Amino acid sequence: MTDVTASAATFDQRIATRQARVGVVGLGYAGLPLAMSFAESGFDVVGIDLSAERVQAVNDRRSYLVDVPADRYSALEGTLSASTDYGAVDDLDTLTICVPTPLSKTRTPDLGYVVAAAESVAGQLRPGQLVVLQSTTYPGTTEEIVLPILESRGGKVGEDFFLGYAPERVDPGNQDYDVRTTPRVVAGVTAECRRRTELLYQTIVDRIVPVSSTMVAETAKLHENTFRAVNIALANELALMCDRLGISAWDVIEAAATKPFAFLPHYPGPGLGGDCIPVVPHFLSWRLREYGYTNQLIDAAHEINSHMPIYATQKVADALNDVGRPVKGSRVLLLGLAYKADVHDTRESPSLEILRQLRQRGADVRYCDPWVPELRFDGVDDVSAAFTAEEVEAADCVVMLTPHRAFLEQPLWDRASLVVDTRNVVPDGPGVWRI
Ligand SMILES: NC(=O)c1ccc[n+]([C@@H]2O[C@H](COP(=O)([O-])OP(=O)(O)OC[C@H]3O[C@@H](n4cnc5c(N)ncnc54)[C@H](O)[C@@H]3O)[C@@H](O)[C@H]2O)c1
Fold it and tell me: Which residues are catalytic?
């Protein structure tokens, strides 16, 4: 057994002096900004990723994420290098796992990446190391899945190695909050595990929020995202109801939002996107089924939110019909394929579903998205059209889906004969339809 007190003193000293070598497994939207933050705070950081392309990009100091522009590399206090080889683990004092946690088509959590990463780490684990899971996952994962894998090599948690959970809250493209200014919830399997996790994250985050168990931290993350999904569903359902009432949901929300307490405005849109809000709540409902509890609100929110692309497509059909045109053969220009403004990410984007449905109905669909210059979707290769007056004029209907700054800074709405606005950014006028 390791002398825990001596090991703690060494760990603390290595963190304080930035001699500790820090590892991050998975260099994606969550992992790369984290690795960058550790390197900015003075650590020598090693990123491990299975993607040789991403590893090469990091080592070449090239940017592949909106939150990590290439110029951040020149301001590092420590170093940041990357490797596809888990052999690097041997050398590290801490290791944070940020690999994907997708859902299967039947909405079952797929922990394959987490298991694979934990097994690779376990094979190299050495005394005194801190492992932190940061991937979003269902309650119980850290202690029921990751812990037994790490302990399978013979060490004991809290003595020989340390295991924490620190959920990710990154909001790609958010200019107001970054790794440092977004408070970080942290938990540990034992008190010493939590203490070490806190110490590590204090070097890069202004406010640490320690909680009582890894399950609390895991569930808090899911609750945050469920809060968003349910409230967006509430706004989307309001839009569906206001449509029947013949009034504007946006006017209703604007009025309600003047209440200075107990109301937090959320807005309707073409549907949910990204790999968090549409996905994460299902981790909670999936886990609770095992406890004989059937969640109703998450499923109801999912039904409403996934109906929105169908509703938006129908709005386009209604708008075209109103000017005497069928969907079939009409030229439709979609503005924005990324799931939210000013990011490249099209994962789960409702724009793709709208594109698919309009194509299925025979529309001649083109898209414009400065963040998504090329698209391979549904067996079709496509490239973004330029956002020009000619392109907008040539469309029978323009559909505003993602409010990228580029569309708002150079508005061409007066050139469009017909607009369906799913984001309430187009000024009122003849030929402007809104959801
Ligand atoms: N993207 C977001 O905005 C966001 C926000 C909050 C939480 N999260 C969570 O963070 C986690 C990571 O998501 P992401 O968006 O960064 O994913 P991502 O797909 O952008 O990146 C994940 C990286 O992990 C690598 N990887 C996969 N398996 C690996 C393995 N066994 N060993 C080493 N590398 C491996 C992949 O090659 C990829 O580069 C997920 O649990 C996600 O739910 C993401």
Answer: 276
